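Task card 7
Instruction: Convert sequence to structure tokens.
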Amino acid sequence: MLKRLLSSAVAAGVMLAAGVAAAQGKMPSTLVTTAYNTGTSGYSQMVAVGAMMKNKLGIDLRVLPGGNDVARFAPVRAKKAHFTATGSDSVYAQEAVYVFGTDKWGPMPVRLLLVNRSNGCTNFAVAKDIGVTSMADLKGKRIGWVRGSPALQKAAESLLAFANVSLTDVTLVEVGGWAASINGIVDGDIDAAITATQSTFMLKMDASPRGVMHPPIPHSDDAGWARIQKIVPWYYKGICIDGPGNAEGGQDGISSVYPIMVSTTDVSDDIAYGMTKAMIDNFEDYKEGAPGAYGWALDKQIEDFYLPSHPGAIRYFKEKGAWSAKAQANHEAMLKRQAVLSKAWKAHVAKPGDDFDKGWMAARAAALTAAGMDPVFATW
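Output:
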């Protein structure tokens, strides 16, 4: 899959440095973004954005589907894609943990452009026919476990932790991609898997004999939410309305901050500015083009997400009067965090010791702790 992604980008003739008139403040004629698999809400939204950009700006936006975190980030790192419309793996790439914490990766200078925050939620898609009514009822059930996707894995762990259910209390069923986890539920091999409730795959589940439901995550349960945010501190409370499987009228849950449009410092300020401007200024032209696309609206943006923003995006937000002191403080704090990670990585690579991965876990945690920052991830 990864080779196909890279070769597709090369075949398209898309190199970040090639044919880009960024020096004149112009956008290239072709942009590339990766996204989750075809059929997901994130992929569908990027296709809708691409149609808008073609119609309004004459720019081709090529959307490359990636089944796991590495497949979505590798083209960005290789400069074969400008952006990735992804999920929490944007934070994992910054933090250099799990698949990004090996000698082949390391901390990435991830930069945020925009987030999508719809009325969908991050939750388990649960087969309705097994009688689950709460998160605690998932104890003993078969949970989809996507290989190579720590973002989805930690999401599952954090939601189970809400109800004091551990990974050893469930049966983890390994699959090769997110779509496979949902298909596994429909086929009867899995009971629950992480999803964005607005995904078009939820319609498939709802129409199947098994049906779909999403366990509520009551906002009033402070202890449960503390356990969630201890594992994934960038999760926010939200009311879940979009997609089948939620209670009528909506229910408490985790606001689905997905997709997250990011690039790296390799992408010029002009390109990042142009992409941000295109998606906000022409929002009306694609907001109904895919499930949850309305979540890209300017008033849906988050001032304190767990990533620094791209200077090009900041330029646009300042022009719109939408860049606050809170956003600036968060941006500076996350830049400092990335600087600590980068310095620790360089020191570790210079003297990795006998076990590179375990040595990095220790070095990373020590460096962040010394800087007064929460490591969040101590081991993996």
